[in-house]
Each structure stands twice: as structure tokens, then as C-alpha cells.
Amino acid sequence: GEDVEQSLFLSVREGDSSVINCTYTDSSSTYLYWYKQEPGAGLQLLTYIFSNMDMKQDQRLTVLLNKKDKHLSLRIADTQTGDSAIYFCADNPPGYALNFGKGTSLLVTP
Amino acid sequence: GAVVSQHPSWVICKSGTSVKIECRSLDFQATTMFWYRQFPKQSLMLMATSNEGSKATYEQGVEKDKFLINHASLTLSTLTVTSAHPEDSSFYICSAGGREDTGELFFGEGSRLTVL
User: Do B110 and A41 touch (CB under 8 A)?
Assistant: First the structure.
């Protein structure tokens, strides 16, 4: 698949908001995903957004999608230390497996 | 609960030996499973698409003789790392099935391979 780009590292204080950005290349993806990976663990689907939506809110998570710029962002409100993990965005070209970004390491400090 | 199970979760082996990793779909049949590899602090790279009853489709740069994939039943795919070397040490994750409404794929818990 083509490249999905993310910033590699983000550090925030507990209670602040975190924003993780992603740019993708496949405009035919029907869904775009955010996965979370805690140390030594597998992937956990955090949230997803349908490609014809601009925004999706799910409790502390807000996903924004700009299809024109192929830009996806994940905002975590009131970030907690338990949110420290690696976050992957992924697009899903039709008929193909998920195409992951390199992941953004989020570090939440007390 | 988990719908895709991997086994073993962690294996340590000597260089030159072969290691088999299993990926099972629980409570559903999967004609297609995907195998990913993740190096430390890096993204997941698709290695191959495992097709039930036929040969796997390998991504460019993945040695098919090195990473043998067998998808003998609708609930089981195996990845065998043959003649493993330290550079094969990695985290291997499989995925199978998914939700038709969201397209979400289900991932296994991952298998960490350490080759000494």
C-alpha cells in the first residue's frame, strides 16, 4: 500500500488534550481507522470514521476527517496516563488489507 | 472477548530452528487471513495474505520459502518461520474476518519471536 504518514512522538500532561495527526493517500478507502497498541500487546481498534463524515465523537475521542487534504486527526480529551501507547492510523484500500502508518507514541506525564 | 487467537504469544528459539505460529478464528470462518510483521518501534507491515485452500499471496520482498503459510481450514492459518535467524526476531500479528457494517478487521494478540 501507499504511505500513511504520522508524527512519531507526542508528549502531553495529564488532563490536557492530545491531538494526533495523520495523512493518508488512498482516497477510495471507505473507512479510516485509529488503532491503539500498548507495550507488548496486540492492536486494539480505538475508533473509525466513515469516509463521507467530517467528524465523529466517541466519549473522549474526536476524529476529524478532511477528505480534500486526506488528513485525519484523533483528539483525546482529558488525556490520562493510561492513554500512553502507540496510536496507528490506517486506511483500507478496497480489496486490500489495512495500510498502517508508522505509529505515534503518546507519552502522558503526571 | 477475542475473536482471533494467536499461539504462542511469545517464543524464544535458537538460530537455525523453525517456529510455527498459529492464528485461529473463533466462532467464525475466515477464508482470508492476513499476516503482519512489526519491528520494534515501527509500523505493521503486511507480509502475506493467507487464502484457505490455496497458496498465500506474499508482499514484495517477503521470502515465501522463509515464511511458510498454510491455511488448511477455515479457522486456522499457520505461519512457519523456517531456519530462523536473529534478524527474524519480531512481533507477528494476524488478522481475520471483520464486521461488514464498519469494515473493522479483527486482530490476534500477536506473537513475539526472539531468535537467539
Answer: yes
Q: Name the nearest CA neighbour of B4 among B31, B26, B20.
A: B26
Phi/psi for A11 (5° steps) reads -125, 130
Other CB atoms within 10 Å distance of the CB of residue B66: 14
Check B107 against A43: CB less than 8 A apart.
yes
In A, residues 23-62, which contact B (CB 8 Å cutoff)?
30-31, 33, 40-43, 45, 48
For chain B (116 residues), the mean pLDDT of every run of 10, in chain order, is: 83 94 89 87 84 89 94 92 94 83 76 93
| Least Cα separation, residue A15 to chain B (angstroms) | 26
Residue A23: CB atoms within 10 Å: 16
DSSP string, A10-56: EEEETTS-EEEEEE---TT-SEEEEEEE-TT--EEEEEEEETT-SEE
